[in-house]
Amino acid sequence: MSEVIKARGKMNNSFDPQSAEKLEPAARKMVEQRARLLGPSYRLFYSEPVDFVRGEGVKLWDSQGNEYLDAYNNVVSVGHGHPKVVEAVHQQMKTLCTHTRYLHPNILEYAEELRPTFGGTIGDTGHTIFTCTGSEANDLALRIAKHRTGKQGVIVTSEAYHGNSDATAAFSPSLGEYSPLGTWVRRVPAPDSYRIDPTNLGRWLADHVQAQIDDLERHGDGLAAFVVDSLFTSDGIYSHPADVLKPVIEVVHKAGGLFVADEVQSGFARTGDKMWGYQRHGIDPDIVTMGKPMGNGYPVAGIGVRHDVVEDFGRDMRYFNTFGGNTVAMAAARAVLSVIQEEGLLDNAARVGKVLLDGLNSLAKDSEFVGDVRGAGLYIGVEIVKDKSSKEPDKARAAAIVTEMRNRHVLISATGYNGNVLKIRPPLVFSAADAERFLEVIRSVLK
């Protein structure tokens, strides 16, 4: 049964409902209630699920009072229960919560603060449009791209995830073989710097994109957009070299398509050297999409878009989102951006990320099955292989490591097509001391 779930849902590190009888009575009761009340679509993490009841900073506590180090959750980008975000949401909620069809300064002030961070054309003269989720943001980006270009085709990387709406699921291959891709969708391989010579990796990727553009044009769809997460997180986390997207954007623009930078995973200071992941590649996208980390747990998301790209769409269409950009959402988002800037979390991600990368690289030297360590800032992938010479992925060992880390109260996950890349993605407030604790635990697990 567990293998069926993994194959159909494409979810690594999932709980097997058939093993519920092995759980403690209270946990078993909740699992049974979930099945009865929520149905079969929901998934739980870990072979033994965790019932968290409280969080603070980078720590979580379960119902038994056990403390866990959170090295996985980027939704709470500035830490669980950050007091500045909590206070901003509380004050605004008790004052006013309403939508964007009334004048209110919150949305304007946030747009003024956010737009310059994009740099390039969007940062100078672009616009922001707000949604509730990253899925909605990517859905909106697709609508704009199709309207702007008059084309239908979308190109993504082979294991990309861009959302779970009907439209975005159609170009999110990581959802698995039972989640159909659109006939207008084409895939290109991720820039696997572990197995491919990184010297000309950008040209290699651009050539693959061009081949798919040709195929889309041959079938009459043409190219509306190339959509990419610049850390290629669902593909296995490929952070370097940080210039592979330059040749790609040239090919995309030459074909008349739009370049959409999906920053749900790699944005908001995550990489440690730039506010946005695409900025590491030195490119100027047409649309930037944002999601999870934007409100530290409050559902707020959106897009940044070039004026010329959205001008016709804004004239011809009407976009309204009841909750997108509401006053409370903007209060949460403003607080998060303020915390990132005031607490120096971009620099913190770089500094603490280096501690993690250095420590993991040191561990890799003494391990026969840690094939590669890669990442930027506080987003790191550790590729687990059967042996370093063959570089053959070892999904079972990766899953065992994730499980044992959970057993030792440290949370990570796994990613990539083969599910063999450890995904380390803590909140941005992760400290050097937290990193040392993490390294101590993973060192003992790897041994």
UniProtKB/TrEMBL annotation:
Q: Which InterPro entries match?
A: Aminotrans_3, Aminotrans_3_PPA_site, PyrdxlP-dep_Trfase, PyrdxlP-dep_Trfase_major, PyrdxlP-dep_Trfase_small
Q: What Pfam families does this protein's entry cite? A: Aminotran_3
Q: Which cofactors does this gene product need? A: pyridoxal 5'-phosphate
Under Gene Ontology molecular function, one entry of this record is: pyridoxal phosphate binding
Q: Which SUPFAM superfamilies match?
A: PLP-dependent transferases (SSF53383)
Which keywords does this chain's UniProt record carry? Aminotransferase, Pyridoxal phosphate, Transferase
Q: Which domain of life is it from?
A: Bacteria
- Family, similarity comment: Belongs to the class-III pyridoxal-phosphate-dependent aminotransferase family.
Protein's UniProt name: Class III aminotransferase
Organism annotation? Caballeronia pedi
